[in-house]
Specification:
It is a single chain. With 314 residues, this protein is α+β, with helices and mostly antiparallel strands. It has eleven helices and eleven strands. The protein has a five-stranded antiparallel beta sheet with strand order 6-5-4-3-7. A four-stranded antiparallel beta sheet has the order 9-10-8-11. Strands 1-2 form a two-stranded antiparallel sheet. Strand 3 and strand 4 form a beta hairpin.
């Protein structure tokens, strides 16, 4: 059996070593949280400065004993990171991958929750799930890890109906205001808002995970969180006063930017949802001109006219 995705492996480990640690004393929970953050910070330092730090240097930097630092290094190696010493100085023998970065960042931001604010997607999901928060996430992670089919009771966001779904769970993805479960349902990959899940039943039945799934590919042309088979070539021209704002952000992995002589900026990208990118275009008001596609122009004009009709002067 192949190993589960890196993100899920780390999340599973972290949930058990830290979330369940909450039932311990506050001091013990703080130790767990500090240990997690320290190990990732050690990894970061060694990656950035190969062959520079010795164990004694890191002990001094993190104010820990040699035995503690050696245990950190051993646990990092057990997690799959080839961090070793050569002539007493530490280096990473295998570069970190993109999936490593995603997993490490997710864990690190959570481990320093007492230092930084939790993102809105965590706060809102906790409000939705309440006392079912840990039960829901740990059950989903376990099912993903074991490739176990589940049955869920789920409130559909579009009509608030309580529905039953038989799912093959693949991944959990954070969004701006929620978390999404990516699962196979009826032979099709679908998204389910985790906060909408009311019950999870583990079936004990297993499934063969598709080698073709990748979160990166699944959302490759998604402007937000919609994933579909349609592909639209979008071309937008932004006025000079907002050109730098657009240029300093990455809106799509496949975007192309062209600066014009008058200071305006043309953004070209491929998306799979007119509605998602259309809502974003509306937020720029008169600072953007839609060059193509016609479907996007029609969508935005329709919404804009609706706004005027509802909110125009009487």
């Amino acid at each position: 059996m192949k190993k589960p995705p890196v993100s899920i492996t780390f999340l599973h480990s972290f949930l058990h070593s830290n979330y369940f640690g909450i039932v311990m004393s506050k001091a013990d929970a703080q130790i767990n949280r500090t240990k997690t953050a320290r190990q990732i910070e050690i990894l970061s330092l060694v990656e950035k400065n190969p062959g520079v730090y010795a164990v004694v240097d890191l002990c001094e930097k993190f104010s820990v004993e040699t035995a503690t630092l050696q245990r950190d290094l051993r646990e990092l190696r057990e997690m799959g990171f080839d961090i070793h010493s050569s002539k007493n100085y530490l280096s990473l023998l295998r570069p970190l991958s993109e999936s490593d970065y995603r997993a490490l960042l997710s864990i690190y931001l959570t481990s320093v929750g007492g230092i930084i604010s939790f993102p809105k997607n965590i706060s809102l999901t906790v409000k939705q799930l309440e006392e079912r928060t840990l039960q829901t996430f740990t059950a989903l992670v376990a099912a993903i890890e074991r490739r176990e089919r589940i049955e869920v009771s789920y409130i559909r966001h579009q009509d608030s109906r309580l529905m039953k779904y038989a799912l093959e769970p693949y991944d959990i993805i954070p969004g701006n205001k929620d978390w999404r479960l990516i699962a196979m349902s009826g032979g099709i990959f679908k998204q389910f808002i985790v906060g909408g899940i009311r019950e999870i039943e583990m079936t004990g039945k297993h499934f063969a995970r598709s080698d073709g799934y990748s979160a990166v590919n699944y959302y490759a042309r998604s402007f937000g969180f919609f994933s579909g088979s349609n592909v639209f070539d979008v071309e937008l021209e932004f006025d000079s006063k907002v050109a730098n704002v657009i240029a300093n952000r990455t809106w799509s992995e496949e975007q192309e930017l062209t600066r014009k002589a008058d200071g305006s900026l043309v953004l070209e990208m491929k998306v799979n949802s007119i509605e998602e990118v259309g809502s974003w275009v509306l937020s720029w008001g008169g600072d953007v001109k839609i060059i193509k596609p016609a479907a996007l122009r029609e969508y935005v004009l329709s919404k804009a006219l609706g706004i005027v009709e509802k909110n125009g002067s009487e």
